[in-house]
């Protein structure tokens, strides 16, 4: 480990500490006392607020009102972080109070004029793809906080033109195709449920129900989502179908490769038939076979409705 790598690792090691001894550094990094002293001086020079505490058991202290300690990144790492950050522009809502323009300004303050010019040129020709989000989520930050704190909440949710109340404990939040989704345990139905975050009208803590430990939700999709009346499916697809699957699929699905053939396998619960049929319609001729036959019939019925619709236009 060279000096720059050691200093970077040292900042991470010391970041959550109030104090440390010189011997701690010497032992962890297998370095001499003189090298440890020089490293500590280097950390002070790049902004880490370290001070000496004198006395018989003298040690080093770290100021508590500090910002996050600086971390040394190489140019490739800066570019990766910068362009990942730019994807936030596509989100109408995030769980963080931030300004992408302010973050860009902070990035540029750490770079030379030459590197800034290179960054701006790169931004003109390179972009990480994402689907723009247009629906505002008023309670995204609250949902995230309740999930982290493992709290049960009472959610008023807009479903079509009606409001419904759910008692939920959220444990997973994700963004997909321009929407934020929150997955949680519904205490009234005793089942897992996925809700769109932008459709939450109000949310507040509910102390009548005892929250479940977070580890209860770290289970397979079969355990979390599958009901006793679920239907299993198996759909064989060509290489184009594999590409479509990788672009969009759901926790209840997986793709297997057996005997030279790709199979999408999974399940759908009662009431999800139309959703899963609409999903597979997108595959078109990439579907080579399908089980169960009932799913094929639902797809054919939906295609007949679509055909009739266009005939009447």
3D architecture notes:
The chain is α+β, with helices and mostly antiparallel strands and 313 residues long. The chain has eleven helices and twelve strands. The protein has four domains: 3-62, Winged helix-like DNA-binding domain superfamily/Winged helix DNA-binding domain (Arc Repressor Mutant, subunit A), CATH 1.10.10; 75-125; 140-218, Roll (SH3 type barrels); 231-311, Alpha-Beta Plaits (2-Layer Sandwich). The chain is 38% helix and 25% strand. Strands 7-6-5-4-8 form a five-stranded antiparallel beta sheet. Strand 10 and strand 11 (261-268) form a beta hairpin. Helix 10 crosses helix 11 (293-311). It starts with a helix and ends with a helix.
Q: How many alpha or pi helices?
A: 11
User: How much strand content do the residues show?
Assistant: 15-25%
Gyration radius, rounded? 27 Å
What is the CA–CA distance across the termini? 70 Å
Number of E-type strands: 12
CATH topology name of the largest domain = Alpha-Beta Plaits
Write down the CATH class of the largest domain.
Answer: Alpha Beta
How would you write the strand order of the largest sheet? 7-6-5-4-8
Q: What is the approximate shape?
A: elongated
Unreliable sequence segments: none
Main β sheet profile: 5 strands, antiparallel
């Amino acid at each position: 480990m060279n000096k720059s790598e050691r200093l970077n690792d040292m900042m991470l090691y010391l970041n959550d500490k109030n104090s440390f001894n010189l011997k701690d550094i010497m032992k962890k990094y297998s370095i001499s006392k003189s090298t440890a002293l020089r490293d500590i001086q280097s950390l002070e020079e790049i902004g880490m607020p370290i001070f000496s505490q004198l006395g018989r058991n003298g040690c080093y202290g770290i100021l508590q009102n500090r910002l996050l300690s600086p971390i040394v990144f190489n140019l490739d790492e800066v570019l990766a972080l910068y362009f990942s950050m730019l994807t936030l522009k596509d989100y109408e809502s995030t769980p963080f109070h931030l300004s992408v323009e302010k973050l860009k300004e902070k990035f540029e303050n750490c770079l030379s004029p030459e590197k800034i010019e290179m960054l701006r040129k790169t931004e003109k020709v390179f972009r990480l793809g994402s689907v723009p989000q247009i629906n505002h989520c008023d309670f995204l930050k609250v949902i995230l906080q309740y999930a982290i704190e493992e709290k049960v909440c009472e959610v008023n949710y807009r479903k079509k033109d009606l409001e419904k109340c759910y008692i939920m404990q959220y444990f997973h939040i994700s963004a997909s195709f321009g929407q934020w989704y929150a997955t949680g345990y519904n205490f009234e139905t005793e089942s897992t449920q996925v809700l769109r975050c932008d459709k939450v009208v109000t949310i507040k803590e509910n102390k009548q129900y005892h929250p479940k430990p977070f580890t209860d939700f770290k289970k397979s999709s079969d355990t979390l989502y599958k009901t006793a009346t679920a239907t299993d499916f198996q759909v064989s697809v060509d290489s184009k179908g594999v590409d479509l699957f990788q672009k969009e699929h759901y926790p209840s699905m997986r793709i297997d490769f057996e005997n030279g053939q790709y199979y999408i396998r999974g399940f759908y619960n009662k009431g999800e038939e139309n959703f899963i049929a609409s999903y597979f319609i997108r595959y078109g001729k990439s579907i080579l076979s399908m089980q169960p036959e009932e799913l094929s019939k639902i797809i054919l019925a939906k295609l007949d409705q679509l055909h009739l619709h266009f005939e009447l236009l």
